[in-house]
Amino acid sequence: MWGALSVKRFETVAIIGVGLIGGSIGLALRERGLAEQVVGVGRRQISLRAARRVGAVHHTTVDLAKGVAEADLVIVCLPVAWIVEHVRAAAEHCPPETLITDTGSTKQSIVEALDDGLPRGCRFLGGHPLAGSEKMGASHARAELFDGRMAILTPTRNTRPADYDRLDQLWSCLGSVVVQMSADEHDRTVALTSQLPHAVAVALAGMLPESCFRFSGTGFQDTSRLAAGSPELWTQIFALNRDHVLAALGLFEEQLAALRTAIQESDRSTLENILNKAKKNRDALGN
Amino acid sequence: MWGALSVKRFETVAIIGVGLIGGSIGLALRERGLAEQVVGVGRRQISLRAARRVGAVHHTTVDLAKGVAEADLVIVCLPVAWIVEHVRAAAEHCPPETLITDTGSTKQSIVEALDDGLPRGCRFLGGHPLAGSEKMGASHARAELFDGRMAILTPTRNTRPADYDRLDQLWSCLGSVVVQMSADEHDRTVALTSQLPHAVAVALAGMLPESCFRFSGTGFQDTSRLAAGSPELWTQIFALNRDHVLAALGLFEEQLAALRTAIQESDRSTLENILNKAKKNRDALGN
């Protein structure tokens, strides 16, 4: 698809945070010839080394100011609670008029904080690729991580169409299906599709008595897999999208209570209806 | 392991119900040379044909009496609600003194009904291999399905040691780790490890609005995968293990409520504790 477009390459892309997502973006940018230079910025040498080793970046630095100095695109791929301050810091040190985006899985609070007022004509446009894994770090990065996945962009009325088009094209080139949403709509959606299953997996894994570990098979493993994700990262995500997460949890608790009541009252037809509806939904989601 | 034992082969094993589990047992018995003859018994020609096609059985029949007539082992691999009546029917028609077992995922009500009083000296010993998939039918059968999985046997004080040893050896030869439990202990355990995650996956899949389907990624898919299982099968399982399932759901609801409260009250340290505990448990379960 992207071969047919006239793609404007980036000179220098600075990726702040070269974990799984940042590393995979770097790999994909390089593999697809979308950037002349990819610079990785991070706090810890061990992460930067991993990013260099897998070929996700050309250069790395722990000095954010140096890392973004020549960037014509900055992508902040950090845990959500750190994004706002790093976008602001990047805007202080990158060339004037630079476009800055992120990959954070909550958007409303980030977009609100950064929608205008960045120094030196820099602009922020929020993004969120719906891709990832419970595995962390650039050593698990893959250029194909975004292939066929959704990438959400959350423009506001302050967003310049040219900036939107630039990121739309970028994510399309990375293989994603780009969707535009308001930050609020994004947060309500991912509360249901991402944060709710995470919460459910956490509750499930957390309650299993150790004596039962060896009796848990692939079903328990699948259902609880997300609980292996980073507690630090998810503490931030739940905090930043608190209201929508609580609403999603409320809906889930109602649904589970309906199932419990049907079991309790041996209400076979309601039970079958619930199981049939769930199967229909799940079958529609593919493997 | 089983190569080193002196394994007593079966002459004729009758498998009643040749779906995923029955078909996989048949395949494994044949592949490992554990039975001279494997006979598949089923209600529907289409299932029996699938079992023959994958090589899970030598012969098939829709006539239970004929199917078990020469069996020295009968394995009932049917949905749990049908097991008791089919064990009784098999006992009427198989040779005297035949050992009959099952693979049902609930045990207490089945074992209670069949523990003594089978006609003509036939004996029932309950079993449950902790293996399976949301995919059904003999066409998905695999001889390796039980490799490295637990197989639970639920003897009672009426069980003859020789019968137990026979099934212990059978499941060991199929690659399983055999564990002995009371039927009640079994039911309490699988309520937590199997039926609870199923209920959770069903509630999760069931509540997702259609407009969100395309935003659900691998995380939602993993967490809700079990909901693709057979509604008919699971209606039976929830009904037959009602009390233990309700207890497990109660524990889960408490755990989820604790997580919700921590998010609601922005209680970061409790939230982190919950997430850390869940990660520790989940990491211990492997992939």
Which features would summarize this protein structure in a list?
alpha/beta, elongated, 2 domains, eight-stranded mixed beta sheet, homodimer, 287 residues, 8 strands
Brief rundown of the structure:
The structure is a homodimer of 287-residue chains. Chain A is of the alpha/beta class. Helices cover 48% and strands 14% of the residues of chain A.
Name the pair of protein chains with the most residues at their interface, and give those residue counts.
A-B, 84 and 84 residues
Distance between the termini of chain A: 24 Å
Helix content of chain A: 40-55%
Largest sheet of chain A: 8 strands, mixed
Q: What report would you give on this structure?
A:
Chain A is an alpha/beta fold and 287 residues long. Chain A folds into two domains: 10-181, NAD(P)-binding Rossmann-like Domain (Rossmann fold, 3-Layer(aba) Sandwich), CATH 3.40.50.720; 186-284, 6-phosphogluconate dehydrogenase C-terminal like domain (6-phosphogluconate dehydrogenase C-terminal fold), CATH 1.10.3660. Helices cover 48% and strands 14% of the residues of chain A. Chain A contains eleven helices and eight strands. Chain A has helices spanning 20-31, 45-53, 64-68, 83-93, 108-114, 161-173, 183-207, 218-224, 231-240, 242-264, 268-284; strands at residues 10-16, 35-41, 59-61, 73-76, 99-102, 123-129, 150-154, 177-180. In chain A, strands 3-2-1-4-5-6-7-8 form an eight-stranded mixed sheet, with helices on both faces. In chain A, β7, α6 and β8 (177-180) form a beta-alpha-beta unit. In chain A, α7 (183-207) packs across α10 and α10 (242-264) packs across α11. The relative contact order of chain A is 0.11.
